[in-house]
Specification:
- The structure is a single chain.
- Helices cover 42% and strands 19% of the residues.
- With 282 residues, it is an alpha/beta fold.
- The protein folds into two domains: 118 residues, Aldehyde Oxidoreductase, domain 3 (Alpha-Beta Complex), CATH 3.90.1170.20; 153 residues, Aldolase class I (TIM Barrel, Alpha-Beta Barrel).
- A six-stranded parallel sheet has the order 6-11-10-9-8-7.
- Helix 1 packs across helix 3 and helix 7 runs parallel beside helix 8.
- It is elongated.
């Protein structure tokens, strides 16, 4: 994990709790008091964010000892002890909520991703589940990491990663009197040699134009299962096929069964439920 991308985030999160001190711990816990605390997974799930939690505790207490008992990506049962942290009691207690907030959300993302991947594998051995850029502002690096820990894959990290021509781009091109073929060729001419180009469509009658444009990937957005099946047949492996829009855990396997290569699920990050992890004194 690249901590230079998240250390500032950790420090800001700690400041939310400690900018004006800790009115409870500052008065009740002695400075020279030490303790052991145990992180416990309260429900079945996939753990993620272990190194982040460690970093949170060590930001307040650099002498803290972190003993992981599992690793990110492990599928675990409820009541599993996932780590022990030892150090200055006042610092560990003050770091508790921040460490748990990170781990609970990241583990929620990993758990939800694992559920989607498991459903897809029932009908399609190769189809990938990916997240999107619909991430919590400032948390994209961590949330995309959590998707990978759940067995998923990452889509674009930023707008610079791949050219993606979406509905608004197409509308603005039409306003200029320009075609999709023109847009794809312009990107080929002016972009790096490794550039991949994806085009979004939401109707079956748009698919042939994308094939003719010689794009690399086509995104079938909010299409019916019948239209997706027809699109996959028409494309005939000439492009990678991504499906997106309205993807739920109940619908993901039927979508995968149409033969698409990728299913992107914004809900992995914008609608995820954090899972319950506690920090116990024993």
């Amino acid at each position: 994990m690249e901590f230079r991308l998240i250390q500032d985030l950790i420090e800001k999160a700690l400041t939310e709790d400690l900018a004006w001190g800790d009115i409870t711990a500052d008065r009740l816990i002695q400075e020279n008091q030490y303790c052991d605390l145990y992180l416990v997974l309260r429900v079945n799930g996939v753990v993620s964010g272990m190194e982040v939690a460690e970093r949170v505790f060590k930001t307040l207490d650099p002498s803290a000892i972190w003993e992981p008992m599992v690793k990110d990506g492990d599928v675990l049962e409820a009541d599993t002890v996932i780590a022990r942290v030892s150090g200055k009691a006042i610092k560990l207690v003050q770091a508790e909520r921040t460490a748990l907030n990170f781990m609970q959300r990241l583990s929620g993302i990993s758990t939800m991703t694992h559920q989607y991947v498991s459903e897809v594998r029932k009908v399609n051995a190769k189809c990938r589940i990916t997240g999107t850029r619909k991430t919590t502002p400032g948390h994209r690096y961590l949330e995309k990491y959590a998707i990978r820990m759940g067995g998923g894959h990452n889509h674009r990290f930023s707008l610079a990663d791949m050219a993606m021509i979406k509905d608004n781009h197409l509308a603005l091109l039409a306003q200029q009197g320009k075609t999709l073929g023109y847009a794809v060729q312009k990107l080929r001419d002016e972009g790096p040699h490794s550039l991949k180009i994806e085009v979004e469509v939401d109707r079956l009658d748009q698919v042939q134009e994308v094939i003719d444009s010689r794009a690399d990937v086509i995104l079938l957005d909010n299409m019916s299962l019948e239209d997706m099946t027809a699109a996959v047949k028409l494309i005939d492996r000439r492009l990678l096929v991504e499906a997106s829009g309205g993807v739920t855990i109940e619908r993901v396997a039927p979508i995968a069964a149409t033969g698409v290569d990728i299913i992107s699920v914004g809900g992995l990050t914008h609608s995820v439920k954090s899972i319950d992890i506690g920090l116990d004194y024993r």
